[in-house]
Specification:
The protein has about 270 residues and is of the alpha/beta class. Helices cover about 35% and strands about 15% of the residues. The chain has helices at about 5-10, 35-55, 75-85, 105-115, 135-145, 170-180, 200-210, 225-230, 255-270; strands at about 15-20, 55-60, 95-100, 115-120, 125-130, 130-135, 155, 165, 185-190, 215, 235.
Length: about 270
């Protein structure tokens, strides 16, 4: 593992775009009448829009499964794996998996579908609106090896949404610890999906682990991209690419194209 971002995504400073599933089986927002075909249609449509805009990677996520769970039932990874499997031939870019907030299930789906990374909270302990988040990276790394998924990169969210870290260790200490423990990228988030992070947190993390990829994970937009790319090694973006900037809407082709045009222009100036 430890592939560079260029090796993994084909470019420095990659833009990874979110593919938000509609509500999955067993969750309050799931539409039983429309069923699995609705999941495939919605995710497939956004996949084609994002790839048409030229994103460097995509991240499949059960964003609509509100209220989120720390441990999901088997129906969630099963449904996600089935849909990703049906769309797999259409995926032309590297992709990841994020099941909120169940890292073990994300790793399992990544192994089953051929994903290149998972985005999860993998280190630290956090009090959150969902309960205590205590991921136990040693167990997760052992599970990854046990199922033959050592090529699945760990993208570690060290400032997770809806939560705060327990204890007195700040961003720098958490970033250094995560790097020492073997994660492949550090993610810096704001307080919720689509909400901007603090640039001071991004700079602190990058200064603490200069040789580790550090990504901006929430609140990324075309207008902020130059400022973000001056520090970050890549971005994960969802809400700002949606119609009217609404997290729950479909991807807006014009917004996606504007973001990628901006990203390409910034990268060309720095190359």
């Amino acid at each position: 593992m430890n592939l560079s971002l260029v090796q993994r995504f084909g470019t420095p400073k990659p833009v990874i775009a979110m593919l938000h599933f509609p509500g999955l089986p067993g969750r309050p927002r799931h539409n039983r009448e429309l069923g699995r075909s609705h999941l495939v249609d919605v995710v497939g449509r956004d996949l084609e829009t994002l790839q048409g805009a030229g994103v460097d990677g995509v991240l499949f996520c059960n964003e609509n499964d509100i209220p989120y769970q720390l441990v999901v039932g088997p129906e969630i990874p099963a449904a996600m794996a089935a849909v990703i499997g049906e769309l797999r031939a259409s995926v032309r870019v590297p992709f990841g998996v994020n099941i909120l907030w169940d890292a073990k299930s994300s790793i399992a789906v990544a192994r089953a579908t051929g994903a290149t990374f998972v985005r999860e909270v993998l280190t630290g302990v956090y009090e959150s609106d969902l309960g205590m988040i205590a991921p136990a990276i040693g167990d997760l790394a052992g599970y990854r090896t046990a199922i033959g998924a050592d090529d699945v990169a760990f993208f570690d969210n060290i400032s997770p949404e809806f939560s705060s870290a327990l204890g007195t260790r700040g961003i720098a200490d958490r970033a250094q610890s995560a790097a020492f423990l073997g994660v492949d990228a550090i993610l810096i988030s704001g307080p919720a999906a689509g909400v901007p992070f603090a640039m001071s947190d991004l700079r602190t993390a990058k200064d603490a682990v200069p040789d580790m990829p550090v990504f901006a994970n929430t609140g990324v937009s075309a207008d902020r991209l130059e400022e973000i790319f001056a520090v970050a090694d890549g971005v994960i973006v969802g809400t700002s690419l949606k119609i009217d900037g609404d997290t729950w809407s479909r991807v807006d082709p014009a917004r996606a194209e504007r973001l990628m045009d901006t990203a390409r222009a910034i990268r060309s100036r720095s190359s």
